[in-house]
Design brief:
Blueprint (H helix, E strand, L loop, with lengths): L1 H26 L7 H26 L14 H7 L1
Helix pairs in contact: 1-2
Length: 82
């Protein structure tokens, strides 16, 4: 579930980026329209939400690395050599 939320946040971030670029091209410097600024604010909120989800996932142990070359802590190997 957490990984699905992270992917969803990333897709929404890309959508916000595309909409901001579109508003920037369409408005062409019109000072009365603030759509580009609103898109930036939404993107900032989504980025903060994504980072908090990732930090929560790592802190709770739901996210981590499972590399085949990482055998874990090396404390047991040094004890066997002694």
């Amino acid at each position: 579930m957490l990984k699905f939320l992270i992917v969803l946040f990333m897709i929404m971030l890309v959508g916000s980026l595309v909409s901001g670029a579109y508003f920037l091209m369409v408005d062409q410097g019109d000072k009365t329209k603030r759509r580009t600024l609103n898109s930036l604010g939404a993107r900032l909120g989504l980025a903060i939400g994504l980072m908090s989800l990732i930090i929560y996932g790592v802190a709770t142990g739901q996210l981590g690395h499972r590399n085949p070359w990482d055998s874990g802590p090396q404390g047991t190997a040094t004890q066997e050599q002694q």
